[in-house]
Design goal:
Length: 207
């Protein structure tokens, strides 16, 4: 008997509230016996209605569940394929030096490109050590070099790029490195298309 009475009261409240929403969300806001007609009062009434709506709108659909008031929220899902920065298996000092530079798109051109890069040692690309443990190199389409980091990944691949998750859009993957020849490719598809596989051939020490 008690449960039936409670259900009837809940149903009545539900109906009254839904009717109130249909009639304009309580714009006839009354305090005591006096109607408050000022713009400020209407604003307060509308804010109050919005607050009530967040809690009770579910009642119009026949349910009585209320939203959680927990201040905590689940962490956002990590972007697919991106991992937190981790140490690389190649040290920054291993790629510091003077390099002949060329690039290729077709893997069949790799040997010829290495020879072309070696010929560029008369005008080498110089990679210097950064002040924070990285290396000074150029990002794609940037005229001014900056300090970049060597970054590892759970897959075992190594990258060169700004600090942050790996691989980032500005990173380049180290495709191969044997101490003498370094081959990299930009992660950004447009940059990868334009720059191709960049081949760095270590130049002989200066006499």
């Amino acid at each position: 008997m008690f449960g039936a009475q409670t259900y009837q009261r809940t149903s009545l409240l539900r109906q009254l509230f839904c009717a109130w929403l249909r009639e304009g969300c309580g714009h006839g806001f009354v305090r005591g016996n006096a109607m408050i007609s000022s713009a400020h009062a209407r604003t307060v009434a509308n804010l109050a209605a919005a607050s009530c709506l967040a809690l009770l709108l579910g009642a119009c659909g026949g349910g009585m569940s209320l939203p959680s008031f927990s201040s905590s929220s689940p962490p956002p899902d990590a972007e697919p394929g991106v991992a937190p920065e981790m140490p690389a298996t190649i040290r920054a000092d291993e790629i510091v030096g003077r390099w002949g530079l060329a690039s290729f798109q077709n893997p069949a051109d790799r040997a010829r490109t290495e020879a072309a890069a070696r010929a560029q040692c008369k005008n080498p690309y110089v990679i210097t050590a950064g002040s924070s443990g990285g290396v000074i190199m150029h990002l794609a389409d940037q005229a001014t070099p900056q300090e970049l980091r060597l970054k590892g990944s759970p897959s075992g691949k190594n990258y060169i790029g700004p600090a942050g998750p790996t691989p980032g859009e500005q990173d380049r993957e180290i495709v191969s490195f044997d101490g003498r020849v370094l081959i990299t490719r930009f992660i950004d598809k447009d940059a990868a298309t334009r720059y191709g596989n960049m081949v760095y051939v270590r130049c002989a020490p200066r006499a």
